[in-house]
Design the sequence.
């Protein structure tokens, strides 16, 4: 996968005051999105936008392009 996360998203959200219970309860992120983040899977651009808003950052702060080895 040529795009990956630079940071571990869930701990970064927790540090910003958004634990998984709060994310679910306030419907900030869906359970399926939280599970995708736990596995390191990429999420939709809408979710990337929401994460950037919560962390007050830009997509380039959390995503990076990596050359594929193929």
Sequence:
């Amino acid at each position: 996968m040529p795009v990956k996360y630079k940071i571990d998203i869930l701990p970064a959200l927790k540090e910003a005051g958004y634990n998984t219970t709060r994310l679910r309860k306030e419907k900030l992120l869906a359970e399926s999105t939280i599970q995708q983040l736990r596995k390191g899977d990429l999420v939709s651009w809408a979710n990337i936008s929401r994460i950037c808003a919560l962390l007050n950052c830009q997509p380039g702060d959390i995503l990076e392009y990596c050359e594929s080895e193929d």
In short: The chain has one domain: 3-65. DSSP finds five helices and two strands in the chain. The mean pLDDT is 94.
